[in-house]
Amino acid sequence: MGQHIFYLATNSAALRAAGEALKSRGYGVVARPCDSVTHLLLPVPSLDADGSIKGGGSLPELLAHLPKNITVVGGNLPTALLQGYKTLDLLQDPTYLASNASITAYCAVRLALIKLPVTLRKCPVLVIGWGRIGKCLAALLWALEADVTVAARKEADRAMARALGYKAVTTAELGEDLNGFRLIYNTVPAPVLGQEQLVHCRENCLLIDLASTLGIDSPDVIWARGLPGKDAPESSGKLIAKTTIRLIGRKEQRE
User: What letters, b where the CB count within 10 A reaches 16 and e where it falls short, cover 14-48?
Assistant: First the structure.
């Protein structure tokens, strides 16, 4: 392993955990920008909608205080701001995405257990979407003996959901049958439940949206974006560190 010195862009709990994991593996972590820094570790994802670093700060201002030959590590990295820099984008790595989806599912179940006055055993739950998070979430809910229904657009996805023991419906079918669910999760980053559909939900139905773009149009929905970093920062940080180390090794092998 070559000399790798990390500077953490923010003092978030997840990045602190990532820093501790990096140090435990023999990597250096410094408290302030300096000439010895080889890697800048940003939050994952890295930037807010206004272009600022998640957790606070300006990326151009931070880069101005760091060596020009550093590698920037983060998620959804802005190519326009990082021209000329080496980058490692964790949100382009399939292994990271799968593991992060699993952490998200655990956090989403914990959130429901906090908010609901009932256990999940035999609880009728709808999971909208059959992507990484939807699959992990359905499996975890099933293990907790929930009555799981998956809403998916593609017939192949619905067939797989049924093969795994879940009920399955098309997203287009969601309407009056919503009255049967006590808990609804959305994982699709697009409008999926509007007011005309939500009027069919039972009064005590808990709505949780996990998508990056809100898909449930309700004032009562809990928009639970970024759960791993907020609710499981140690797990999130360790995953960030583990993925970073793996990608650095892969990059050095290519070079």
Answer: bbbbbbebbeeeebebeeebeeebbbbbbbbbbbe
pLDDT grade for 49, boundaries at 50, 70 and 90: confident
Cα–Cα distance for residue pair 28/26, rounded to 1 Å: 7
The two domains 5-92+232-254 and 101-224 share their CATH topology (first three levels equal): yes
**Bond prior to 60 in cis (omega within 30° of 0):** no
Contact (CB, 8 A) for 209 and 215 = yes
- Distance CA(67)–CA(38), nearest Å, equals 8
Q: What is the tens place of the pLDDT at every residue in 161-210?
A: 999 999 999 998 898 899 999 999 999 999 999 999 999 999 999 999 99
Residue 249, pLDDT score: 87
CB 35 within 8 A of CB 66: no
Domain at 101-224, CATH homologous superfamily:
NAD(P)-binding Rossmann-like Domain (3.40.50.720)
Q: Is the pTM of this model over 0.90?
A: yes
Q: Are the CB atoms for 164 and 170 separated by under 8 Å?
A: no
Report residue 223: phi and psi, to 5°: -90, 100
Cα distance between residue 208 and residue 135, in whole Å: 16
